[in-house]
Amino acid sequence: MPHQLQLEEELFPSTPGKIKRRTLQRCFTSTSTMFLWALFLIALTASYLAFLTNSNRYLYHEKMIRSSAEIRRSNGMSVLVTGAAGFVGSHVALALKKRGDGVVGIDNFNDYYDPSLKRSRRNMLEDNKIFIVEGDINDMRMLAKLFEVVKFTHVMHLAAQAGVRYAMENPNSYIHSNIAGLVTLLEQCKAAEPQPAIVWASSSSVYGLNEKVPFSEADRTDQPASLYAATKKAGEEITHTYNHIYGLSITGLRFFTVYGPWGRPDMAYFSFTKNILQGKPITVYRGKDRVDLARDFTYIDDIVKGCVASLDTAGKSTGTGGKKKGPAPYRIFNLGNTSPVTVPTLVNILEKNLKIKAKKNVIEMPGNGDVPFTHANISLAQRELGYNPTTDLPTGLKKFVKWYMSYYGFDHVKGSYVNS
Known about the structure:
Blueprint: H1 2-11, H2 16-68, E1 78-82, H3 87-98, E2 102-107, H4 115-127, E3 131-134, H5 140-149, E4 154-157, H6 171-191, E5 197-201, H7 227-246, E6 250-255, E7 258-259, H8 268-277, E8 282-286, E9 294-295, E10 298-299, H9 300-313, E11 319-320, E12 323-324, E13 330-335, E14 341-342, H10 343-354, E15 360-364, H11 379-385, H12 393-408, E16 410-411, E17 416-417
Parallel strand pairs: 1-2, 1-4, 2-3, 4-5, 5-6, 6-13, 7-10, 8-15
Antiparallel strand pairs: 9-14, 11-12, 16-17
């Protein structure tokens, strides 16, 4: 390099400084190029290692999914349970697995209520060899991959944004889950080969402002009292459309106030229990003219029996290639206990089980979408599904309180939580 520089200065004596700068620039450019190549190689290596890691993770998940979906009884079914880490979903998944059906779950573990409870349910399911994919039902690519790995015979669709009052805080979550998510799932089921039969959770809330009791499946459902109810009613119309156009076999279940062990913390009986144990006041709503609110409380085990019976009796879907080849079943059933109980009676039962008197604030029900009463006519489910609820509220709440004390570690003697 010094000889080259000297030669260039002799040939072009008037520009030695420029030549030196040009030479330095060449050296700098060469060094920069080598540095960039080094960065590229490092990035390429990191990407390759990440690819191997993700591939291994994917292969592991695929293996777990296939194992979880394996049918272990004669004439069994392979069921995708959405919302599998939820209250009803975890119980249904467990019941199906225990009798030998293949079960794969999916749940997004959102924070509408404490996700740790959902993860505890997942741990319980994993102990019973049920795999739950963590993801959103709006993810079409993920759903397509799931259906590629497993040819599901049935879908138990229980994923939804629950709760009446929360809709006033976060209305978009109801549209995202209860409408957009439902459509995404139906699109995948429509395209699947073979198409699965679908059972999904509607709600007793669709009866809205009806005053005729008990509520029957033939009653009008065009007067929703909340956004939650409106999304469930929309779901019934949407599922009917997919049944009519694409031949999907669809069963909608209108649940009536489900309660029991592993339940949802946002439900009244759950929050009442927590507050009574902590010595905090509970809010008890009344309807107009000081009328007590009443609910058709339905124990989780009875709901599970109705869900499983709906899967067992679901006719086959008739579409292929996304096109309907013939009529397919479309059904809607009430799943309730057909014995409404007032909220003050619920509180009295909890007080007896907890051996603590509740501090009550009784106020008139605000205009938040709640309805004053629910009461199910279950004659259709009895006839078509053999549905027969057997657990009354005192029995069911006793079981719930026993689970609550055990799960949260409440010590009656100390009057505090052991795990706190």
